[in-house]
Design brief:
CATH topology of the largest domain: Rossmann fold
Helix content: 25-40%
Bound molecules: adenosine-5'-triphosphate, magnesium ion
Distance between the termini: 48 Å
CATH class of the largest domain: Alpha Beta
Strand order of the largest sheet: 6-7-8-3-9-10
CATH architecture of the largest domain: 3-Layer(aba) Sandwich
Number of strands: 22
Largest sheet: 6 strands, mixed
Oligomer: single chain
Structural class: alpha/beta
Shape: globular
Strand content: 25-35%
CATH superfamily of the largest domain: P-loop containing nucleotide triphosphate hydrolases
């Protein structure tokens, strides 16, 4: 790394939260026109370090120098004005604004008289900004109605127009399709050419190696190493992130496969999926692979009673379900872990314990009272088993790192007397070490006779964990493969609409 062109230097940053040392003497140097990957396991401190930089949190100790100027106690707005923009991991606070309101947040053009916002000017300017980026949205549209990818593009638009010389992207691709990733990378490359520096947080190694120039590894709030990405292999990075060797990454055990538990017959929902038929047996793990948009999530949602379907039938243990509701399915032992934990995964202002136990509170009933002791013991066990990083079970779930929130959601469902577990992208945003733990748990559940349906866009995960693989393309099932004969190429060919004889 060259010494000149240094945009940012963070030195010996320390930050504690009650019960957690989130960062201890962490340093980071970022250069103009380069992408700096920030990597580490869930809870390593990546988001915290960047929230300090962008003015969300104050540092306990340490020094920040941005473009030669020492930063001290600046608030979010001042930081933005200096040219640092952060695209957050959770974009939810923005969802109630319109696109225009978000683009001009804190910079609304006011009418000459008084301090009222000039909406007409705001919309006109917003439209121009969007057009510059090749986006054709109505600026009056609510952020909420956009896909996560588009929300991110809007955030990037905002950053560019504010003349940001450093853009922080916190797991920008965790919820977007491969095409959208391509578009994002094109934008990143353009930004680089203009000299913009980018801090890029991700758990996906293929992306890191494609887009990053430099890398810094954090582990448990500590600085581990940094350098040019070309001097590292994936194995090097993993070893430094995890601090231990992970052997047997996919601990799939051969489970005893029994009778059919869930049977889906000719399920249709206009515009979402068509003619879906498949079954899952006791102890079996069925992987559903498809590109984003293939209709996989919609199928799971319909089975779980979150959306209605137009025609078709679902049988559970040989019984046709007459009136399918989510409550009914949960009572029957069907669980679903959704891909988007923001909307129906977690209750943000509740504790880790409550988030784990609320759905199955009945389990802890002694007569009409809940047994706090029993509840607490079970929760503690879950936290240990899933390696959930939290100061204790009373911490608010919203204070946990992204990946650890995901583990809490999983823990919640594991409490039920499960018959069928439906997982939608179960390891999205989850680091390598914890991924392997989650695979181990899924495998153990199957071993105990639970039927598992796992939707995933990650081929190695599908191949590593499934007994049988269903491939979806354009809203319907295009094939079914036995895991012993399936190959990555074969699955991909089917998923993209090609024919595959294998
Ligand atoms: N507002 C907060 N209050 C209390 N603890 C917090 C808060 N924010 C973060 N933490 C804790 O600080 C540690 C670092 O969290 P951080 O969000 O920075 O991790 P991360 O590296 O971004 O992880 P992930 O990959 O899961 O997003 C975690 O133990 C987390 O629980
Ligand atoms: Mg994070």
């Amino acid at each position: 790394m060259e010494e000149n062109g240094k945009v940012l230097e963070m030195r010996n940053i320390c930050k504690s939260f009650p019960g957690v040392k989130a960062l201890q003497n962490v340093s980071l140097t970022v250069y103009e026109g380069r992408v700096h990957a920030l990597v580490g396991e869930n809870g390593a401190g990546k988001s915290t370090l960047m929230k300090i930089l962008s003015g969300v949190y104050e540092v306990d100790a340490g020094e920040i120098v941005f473009k030669g100027k020492s930063l001290k106690h600046q608030d979010i707005k001042e930081i933005m004005d200096l040219g640092i923009a952060m695209i957050h991991q959770e974009l939810s606070p923005l969802e109630n604004m319109t696109i225009a309101e978000n683009l001009f947040l804190g910079k609304e053009p006011s009418l000459k008289i008084g301090c009222f916002v000039d909406f007409k000017a705001m919309h006109k300017n917003a439209r121009r900004m969007l057009e510059d980026m090749g986006l054709s949205y109505d600026p009056a549209r609510k952020m909420r109605s956009l896909s996560i990818a588009d929300m991110q593009l809007i955030e990037i638009t905002k950053a560019i127009h504010r003349g940001a010389s450093l853009i922080i992207m916190d797991e920008p691709t965790s919820a977007i399709t491969s095409n959208e990733i391509k578009t994002l990378f094109e934008h990143i490359r353009k930004l680089k050419e203009q000299g913009t520096a980018i801090v890029y947080i991700s758990h996906k190694f293929d992306e890191i190696f494609e887009i990053a120039d430099d890398v810094t590894v954090l582990r448990d709030g500590q600085y581990i190493c940094s350098g040019e990405i070309k001097d590292y292999t994936e194995a090097d990075l993993i070893a430094r992130m995890v601090g231990r060797k992970i052997d047997n990454y996919y601990p799939k055990e051969q489970a005893k496969i029994g009778e059919t538990v869930l049977k889906v017959k000719n399920l249709n929902r206009n515009g979402a999926f068509r003619d879906i038929s498949f079954e899952v047996k006791k102890g079996e793990i069925v992987g559903i692979f498809g590109l984003v948009g293939a209709g996989r999530t919609e199928v799971l949602r319909a089975i779980f009673g979150l959306d209605e379907f137009d025609s078709g039938e679902i049988e559970l243990c040989g019984q046709k379900i007459k009136k399918l509701t989510t409550d009914y399915m949960i009572r029957q032992g069907v669980a679903m872990v959704s891909e988007d934990r923001r909307t129906y995964g977690i209750i943000p202002r509740r504790s880790v314990e409550e988030n784990i136990t609320l759905t199955f509170l009945k389990k802890f009933m002694n007569g009409v009272f809940t047994s706090r002791k029993k509840e607490n013991a079970v929760v503690k066990e879950m936290i240990q088993e899933l390696l959930i990083k939290t100061p204790d079970e009373d911490a608010l779930i919203q204070n946990l790192s992204g990946g650890n929130q995901q583990k809490v959601v999983l823990a919640k469902w594991l409490l039920g007397d499960l018959k069928v577990l439906m997982l939608d992208e179960p390891t999205r945003g989850i680091d390598v070490g914890a991924k392997s733990e989650i695979y181990r748990i899924i495998s153990q559940l199957a071993g105990k006779g639970v039927s598992v349906i796992m939707v995933s866009s990650e081929l190695p995960e599908i191949l590593g964990m499934s007994d049988r693989i269903i491939v979806m393309h354009e809203k319907t099932i295009v094939g079914e493969l036995n895991v012993t004969t399936a190959t990555q190429e074969g699955i991909m060919t089917m998923a993209t609409g090609g024919r595959y004889y294998g």
